[in-house]
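Example 265.
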Amino acid sequence: MIGAKIGAGREADVHAWGDDTVVKLYRPGFGGHRAEALALTKLDGHGVAPRLIDVVDCDGRIGLVLERLGGQDMLTLLQRQPWRVLGLARALATAHLAVHAIRVPEGLPDLRERLAAHIDDAALPPPLRDFAVRVLHELPDGDHVCHGDYHPGNVLVTADRVNVIDWVGATRGVPEADHARTLLLLRRADPLPGTPLLSRALMATGRSVFTHGYTRAYTANTPRPLHQVDKWLIVHTAARLSEGIDIERPTLIDLLDRARHRAVR
Ligand SMILES: Nc1ncnc2c1ncn2[C@@H]1O[C@H](COP(=O)(O)OP(=O)(O)O)[C@@H](O)[C@H]1O
Ligand SMILES: [Mg+2]
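Predicted structure in complex with adenosine-5'-diphosphate:
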């Protein structure tokens, strides 16, 4: 039986479901449950994500029944315990590296194809679109798990571990691509519809302190050298514009414009 609501985001509401599980009920019209169910199946046994128990239909809404994880999401924690900013930034990096250590030869969508589609949808001025597409062409494929929307609102923190949720955008690619997307979100994301806390929580704790802490810990502990993070940032900046967050648009366009001018100099 559906229990109390314990969370909500852009695509779904999450309710208690029995004692040990939750149900993530997608809003009508969102098809993300298929992508998320596939990703969770691939991640089963790796200890980074909740287990997928079942897929149910609740009055016409599709629900994923998931293992219920303890702890609080990191955004809430940053607001409530801002003095933990550096420890939490390091924990965010450590869990991200654990995700990137998982390799999936097949089954998840290809990150570069996904990014190409987003750039296409972004309604960019043609010179900027062409620039982003050119940069994307030079970047490599990979077979590591990439989360696609990895930020403090999508991790749950307990005393001894960090679990990652919200796998709708999971793909396979190179880790630095997924790292770059997180850098973009930490530096630039304005309140996301359904996740209004991102900017406010990060501002309260010192956005740049948190971002530097995450970056330093990720860079210091990655088992492989990071290539072309700046190029991945350009591509993600273009792709982000497909998400239609109006308030971010001028800044993102300006970033792209400047990157393009640097590239042709
Ligand atoms: N497996 C889980 N166990 C406990 N809480 C969860 C679980 N999955 C999601 N939640 C709660 O629901 C909220 C929204 O979940 P999320 O998967 O991020 O959905 P959305 O795609 O709508 O952002 C989370 O912030 C968290 O509070
Ligand atoms: Mg979420």
